[in-house]
C-alpha cells in the first residue's frame, strides 16, 4: 500500500526523526536551500551513490564517514543550489567544516553527519552562509509533517514540486512506517553502484530497528529495480545519493525472513513511487512514459534495450510530438548493443500493436496519436529472445527542456 | 588539399562516372528523390555499413551483392524519402526489383547494382514509382558537374544543402581525382563497422584504378578517423553507408606504397571535409563544436570520452546557450566508463582554460560566452593519463532540433 503525498494530504511520519528546512541564502532566489534531519542515537544507515567517476566532495565525505562509522548516522544535512563538485581540496574542507559545526551543535561526532548537496558544479560552496544558518536550522527541527515538508522543499532545485511516498508495514513487535523524500528533475539517469552514488537525492526513513548490514542489501535490491531504471535525460549526476535510515523508535525490529520480505516490499513500493514522481517532474517533460521491455534473455539485457530506447533523442522527440514513429524505437533497440534479431521484435504503443516481427502492422494512427497525447503513455517492446522483462520509466524531450538547460544564467 | 564545394563553384569530377537525379514522387514535397551513378565496367568498390542490429533492406542487399561480386559495382541507385527499413521480406523484394530493373536498362547483372536508401522507417518502398522513373533516370545520366549536383540533391532528406568535397592526388601514371558526395543531418552518430554499415550516406569516387582488396583497408582507415568521430544526436541510423568506387578511367593506378599514402591522405581529407559538413548541417544546429580529447592512454579511450561529452544532452544544451558550464563537460567525461581521475582533468573553452586539475580556475566568463557564441566553437579536454588524442566533431542541441523531430507529420 503506497500513498503519494500531495502537499495537502496528511503525511505518515516514522517516529524518531526531526526535520527542518530554511533559506540560508545559497540560492539567489531566496528559496529554501538547507535541510536537516536529526536522527536518534542508535539508528542504522545504508546508502548507495552515483557511479560517475566525478563525484561531489559531499559524496566523498558521506561515503567515507559511513564506512568509518559502519552505518551510524546522527544527522543528515542537505544543501541545494550548489553541488560542491569539482572544487578540489577546498570543496572537501568546506564540507567537513559544515559537518563539524553541525556535530558540535548536536553533540555528535563529525563522522556521524551525512552530507548531501545538489546544484551547480564548479562553484565554491558558500560555507559561511551555511555555518551561520546552522543554529537556526537545529533550533527549528521538529517531528512534524510541516517540518518534513520544509525539508523536502529545501532540497529541491529545478523540481516543480516536492516528492513524498510513505507506507506502513508490519514487523516483529508490531507496525512500522517507511517514509521517502526525494528530489530530482534533470541530470537524471541514476546508475547507482553498491556501495553506491546520483543529482537525484532520496532519503528513506523507517522507525523499525535494523542493523546497517541488514539495510544495505535491502536498499540495493529496491534501488536496482526502481531508481536504476529511470531516465530523464541520460546524464548521470555527480551527486546522486539514496540513503536509508532506521531509527528503531517504533519499538519494532527486523527479525524474521517474513519481516525482511515485508520491509523489502514497502521499500520497493516507496522507491517506485518516488522514481515515478521524479520522472513525471522531469525537466520540460510533457509525457511520462511507462516502457516495458519483455522477451529478453536476462533482466540486464532487457534493461540495456530499455535504456537505449529511453535515451534516444529521436525517440524522445517523437514522444514529445505524440508521433507513433515506432521505427525510431526499433532503431534505438538495434543500437543497444544487444544482439537482437529485428525479425522477432514486436512493438506496442498504447493499446495497439504497431510493429510485428520487425515490420509495420496495420494500426489506427489517429488512435495512436491520441493515446500518445495523454500525460501517461505506455510503450511495450517484445524482443522474442527469452522470458526476462523490465519496466523502465522515462519522459519525452521537449523544447522546454532545451530552453531550461540552455538558459545562460550560471 | 581539399576543396569544399559550395554549389556555385566548379566541381572537380573524376573520370568515368555518370550522374543523374530526378523527382520520382517518393517525397510528397516533389523534390528530387532518386539518384543514379553509372559506373564503368572494371571499376572496384569497397563499402562500410552501420553497426545497428536493425538494418534497412537496401543495406542487406548492398552488403550481400558486394560480397557476391567481390567488390564489382556497375551502378549506384539511391532513393531518399523512404529508408526501406523494417518492411520484412517485402522490403527486400522491393529493393531487389529495383536492382533488377536498373540492371536490365544498363545491361549489367542485378548483383552489380548497389542500392542505398534514406528516409522514414517502416513504410513500404513505393516500388512502382521508382520502376517507372528508372528509364528517365538512366537517360539523364551525364559526366557533368550539373548532373553530379542533381545526384547530390536527390539523396538529401532534412539536409539544408548538398555536401561535396574533392581533391586531386598523384599516383602511378599521373594525376587522379577523388570526389565525395554525402548527405546527413539527423540520426547522425555513425558507428561504421568493417565490413561495415549509417542515415549518413557517403559516396567517394576516384578515377584511379585499384583492386577492391586495396580499397577496403584504405576506406576503413579514413572512416574510422572521420565519420566514426562525429555525432549530431547520438542516434546511429539503420542505413548508414560509405561507398568508395575506383573507375580506373584516369589511366592511373595505385601501385606503390607512395601511391597508397597519397590516396590515403586524399581520402582522409575528403572524408574529414564531408564529416564536418554533415555536422555543420546537423538538424537545428547553431554551433559546430570542434572537440579535442587529449592525454588518454589509447585513441579508443579518448574517443569514448569524446563520445560521452558529445552525446550529453546537458552539455549540448549548454552549448546552445553559449554557456561556459564546464561542470557538465567534466560530469559527462566521468560517465564515459573510462576510469579517469577527475583531479587530473583540464578543460579549455575557446582560448581559455576553465578547469584545472578537476577544479574551477579563474577565467573571463564574458569572453567565454562570446567565444561560445561563435558559429564554430573549440572545446579541449585533457585527461592526464597518457599521450593519445582524438578530434571529434559535434553540434549543440537546440529547441529547433526538438521541433523538427517532434513535428507529427509522418
Describe this structure in words.
The structure is a homodimer of 410-residue chains. The first copy, chain A, is α+β, with helices and mostly antiparallel strands. In chain A, 34% of the residues lie in helices and 26% in strands. Chain A is built from 11 helices and 18 strands. The first copy, chain A, has helices at 57-69, 88-106, 127-139, 145-154, 212-225, 257-280, 299-310, 313-320, 326-334, 365-372, 399-406; strands spanning 3-4, 18-22, 34-38, 44-50, 75-82, 113-120, 163-171, 174-183, 192-193, 201-206, 230-231, 241-246, 288-296, 346-349, 352-356, 359-360, 376-382, 388-395. Chain A has a 7-stranded mixed β-sheet, sandwiched between helices. In chain A, α1 (57-69) crosses α2 (88-106) and α7 (299-310) packs across α9. Mean pLDDT of chain A is 90; it is low at 1-8. The interface between A and B is large, with 70 and 70 residues.
Amino acid at each position: 500500500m503506497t500513498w503519494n503525498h500531495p502537499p495537502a494530504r496528511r503525511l505518515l511520519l516514522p517516529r524518531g526523526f526531526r526535520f527542518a528546512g530554511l533559506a540560508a541564502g545559497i540560492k539567489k532566489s531566496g528559496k529554501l536551500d538547507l535541510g536537516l534531519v536529526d536522527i536518534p542515537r542508535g539508528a542504522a544507515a545504508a546508502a548507495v551513490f552515483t557511479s560517475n567517476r566525478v563525484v561531489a566532495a559531499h559524496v566523498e565525505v558521506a561515503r567515507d564517514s559511513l564506512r568509518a562509522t559502519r552505518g551510524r548516522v546522527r544527522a543528515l544535512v542537505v544543501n541545494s543550489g550548489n553541488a560542491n563538485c569539482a572544487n578540489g581540496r577546498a570543496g572537501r574542507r568546506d564540507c567537513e567544516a559544515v559537518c563539524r559545526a553541525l556535530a558540535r551543535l548536536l553533540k555528535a561526532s563529525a563522522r556521524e553527519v551525512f552530507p548531501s548537496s545538489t546544484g551547480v558544479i564548479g562553484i565554491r560552496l558558500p560555507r559561511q552562509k551555511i555555518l551561520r544558518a546552522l543554529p537556526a536550522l537545529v533550533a527549528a527541527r521538529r517531528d512534524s509533517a510541516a517540518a518534513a515538508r520544509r525539508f523536502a522543499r529545501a532540497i529541491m532545485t529545478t523540481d516543480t514540486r516536492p516528492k513524498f511516498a510513505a507506507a506502513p508495514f508490519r514487523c516483529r513487535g508490531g507496525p512500522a512506517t517507511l517514509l521517502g523524500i526525494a528530489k530530482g528533475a534533470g541530470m537524471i539517469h541514476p546508475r547507482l553502484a553498491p556501495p553506491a552514488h546520483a543529482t537525484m537525492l532520496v532519503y528513506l526513513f523507517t522507525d523499525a530497528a535494523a542493523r546497517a548490514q541488514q539495510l544495505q542489501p535491502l536498499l540495493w535490491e529496491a534501488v536496482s529495480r526502481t531508481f536504476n531504471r529511470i531516465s530523464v535525460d541520460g546524464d548521470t549526476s555527480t551527486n546522486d545519493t539514496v540513503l536509508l535510515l532506521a531509527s528503531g523508535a517504533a519499538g519494532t525490529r527486523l527479525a524474521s525472513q517474513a519481516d525482511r520480505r515485508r520491509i523489502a516490499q514497502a521499500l520497493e513500493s516507496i522507491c517506485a513511487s518516488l522514481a515515478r514522481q521524479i520522472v513525471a517532474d522531469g525537466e520540460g517533460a510533457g509525457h511520462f512514459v511507462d516502457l516495458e521491455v519483455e522477451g529478453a534473455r536476462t533482466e540486464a539485457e532487457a534493461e540495456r534495450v530499455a535504456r537505449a530506447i529511453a535515451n534516444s533523442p529521436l525517440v524522445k522527440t517523437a514522444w514529445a510530438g505524440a508521433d507513433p514513429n515506432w521505427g525510431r524505437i526499433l532503431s534505438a533497440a538495434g543500437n543497444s548493443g544487444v544482439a537482437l534479431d529485428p525479425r522477432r521484435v514486436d512493438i506496442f504503443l498504447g493499446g495497439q500493436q504497431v510493429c510485428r516481427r520487425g515490420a509495420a502492422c496495420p494500426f489506427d494512427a489517429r488512435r495512436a496519436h491520441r493515446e500518445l497525447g495523454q500525460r501517461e503513455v505506455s510503450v511495450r517492446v517484445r524482443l522474442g529472445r527469452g522470458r526476462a522483462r523490465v519496466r523502465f520509466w522515462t519522459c519525452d524531450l521537449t523544447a522546454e527542456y532545451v530552453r531550461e538547460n540552455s538558459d545562460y544564467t550560471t
